[in-house]
Amino acid sequence: MAVTRSILLFVLAAFAEIGGCWLIWQAVREHRTWLLALGGVVALGAYGFVAAAQPDGAFGRVLAAYGGVFVAGSLAWGVLVDGFRPTVWDITGACVCLVGAGLIIYQPRA
């Protein structure tokens, strides 16, 4: 159950961080309303709380593992929201990152 909770928290953290960055990008780079930037700031703040809810108490380990989730999540966001078409290298790199994330956070501990 702890692994399932952890995975769900990683997905929620990715949604909050990537979504927050995307909202700010829309306001700044796409010249849309600054209310989007405000929503992005709120989402980025929420990301911090979600990351802190991870069962593992080691900040460095959680954030390092989340880095792999962020890479894959960013590419997925691009595909689903922006029509981005990843290359086979993008997908391969994201898979390597997810394997690395899994090794970091779910390694057996004594």
TrEMBL record:
GO CC aspect terms: plasma membrane
Topology of this chain in the membrane: Multi-pass membrane protein
SUPFAM superfamilies cross-referenced by the UniProt entry: Multidrug resistance efflux transporter EmrE
Keyword Cell membrane: yes
TM region(s), chain numbering: 7-28, 34-51, 63-81, 87-106
Pfam families assigned to the protein according to its UniProt record, in alphabetical order: UPF0060
Keywords: Cell membrane, Membrane, Transmembrane, Transmembrane helix
UniProt xrefs under InterPro entries: EmrE-like, UPF0060
Location within or outside the cell: Cell membrane
Transmembrane helix among keywords: yes
HAMAP family associated with the record: UPF0060 (MF_00010)
Family: Belongs to the UPF0060 family.
Protein name: YnfA family protein
Organism: Streptacidiphilus fuscans
